[in-house]
Amino acid sequence: MSRQHPAAPSAPPSPHAASPHAAAPGAAHRDWWRDAVIYQVYPRSFADSDGDGMGDLAGVRSRLPYLRALGVDAVWLSPFYASPQADAGYDVADYRAVDPMFGTLTDADGLIRDAHAQGLRIIVDLVPNHSSDQHEWFKRALAEGPGSPLRDRYHFRPGKGARGELPPNDWESVFGGPAWTRVPDGAWYLHLFAPEQPDFNWEHPAVGDEFRTILRFWLDLGVDGFRVDVAHGLVKAEGLPDIGTRDQVRLLGNGVMPFFDQDGVHAVYREWRTVLDEYAGDEEPAAASAPGRPRRTGGRMFVAEAWTPTVERTARYVRPDELHQAFNFQYLSTDWDAGELRRIIDRTLDAMRPVGAPATWVLSNHDVTRHATRFANPPGLGTQIRTAGDREQGLRRARAATLLMLALPGSAYLYQGEELGLPDVVDLPDEVRQDPAYFRGAGQDGFRDGCRVPIPWTRTGPSYGFGSGGSWLPQPSTWGELSVQAQQGTPGSTLELYRRALRLRRAEPGLGAGDAVEWLRAPEGVLAFRRGEFVCVANTTGESVTTRSHGRVLLSSGDEVTEADGEAKVPADTTVWWAMT
Ligand code: GLC
To answer: In CATH, what number is assigned to the domain containing residue 120?
Structure first.
């Protein structure tokens, strides 16, 4: 941790104990998001309050005490806005309304208030790249026909070919198939995702105006931040030039595409930043401030979902006058391999330092195979995996990967259910699937439903406590044993591991502070680093390894660490935290 010397998070920790904090300028007013642990709630799969098989906002509200006890700082909610649900809510028909299946605006308001009262922040999802085809603007654009001014707010173009029967360019949808759909009057419109998700034209001033008022709408309601969906996609290259190859989905993430990561997007974020900054300086949620804990500013924040080729490109989204954080997808895509992990950790910290943004770390989300299943499979398969693999190994590695992630400086993102060690459900029958990518075939694998199965709260009962009725995707019979009820208070359970790790991480100054790690010499396949008086050792090999003992073991993701004569045996696929004092 370079020149910083965090006190070791000693056990039992005093989560809010006072201590000098050298991590950031203005320690007494550290921005809360710099080291926050943010828990992603996928509302349709979290908790169902009315027994209709679909999770809802009242369900989330009823489970806030669970999240507080887990020890996270903030909750990011995937979209709950009015939507025909062609892409599970990422197709928004009305950005200022709650879809009846999730509740009402009053429920959203109540959820935000309750969260604040319990010291939790709320981040909502903002979907600016595209709307639903049922959005008022798009419906009018179609109904008014060619020449409608509303068409300029999307990308309508005439087709190529003698009768305009060919799409305007060769772009392919991320979900597979052409990125263009023809409407009955012959014009084509662009959709980088499903046909029900037409892309906005961000060159049109009305689009920017609209989104600034949407930001204010939710800021006025009290949200603490926004996750910006497809933040890399808003601006397209001038003239919408052809790419010249097929299977473009394979190119995503490998280079700058004419529809992704264009320089023009940054002007949008600079404007948004000025809106957010107007809301800076609010009080932090009352319950979040505890005696002795450095007071944190109540500023609002943005986190970008920006899939870019490199972390250096990602760093451009979090320059001081743009967004605050961006997901680290390079980290998410890294195999359980010490060398690879070290490279991406260093590269991330090096890329973020010059722009002054915190690094972020993430292992799972609603778009990728859960890390317990990724690590159950051989390396090199990517983030969409269809096989269960070796479950025991997957869970062991997932727990180790989580402890490694939570020991790194910056902010960490958790995805609901990972604290239970949930695997992906890889055997969902085709007839229950809802991922639009599944139906479009050629593009993404379309197996995102596997990580979206409603989570289990109780050992038995209808939908394992998810609700009083069924569940929109079938839950496997193993769900009861993985439930919150089964793991709560059970020593060694994954839930208790997360709780303890989050408690330790929070000790002041927490493990999230700072912007560097000090690497220690370690055997092949092992990562070891020091941060002040704290040491983290991750053994990514399938064998136990002997290392130096670093003091007092705070936590192990696996079996107990045996120590003798200044040496410690770290079990296979296990991460260990030590306090040097
Ligand atoms: C983002 C979301 C994903 C969605 C896509 C289109 O990548 O995370 O779930 O399908 O955007 O909105």
So the answer is: 3.20.20.80
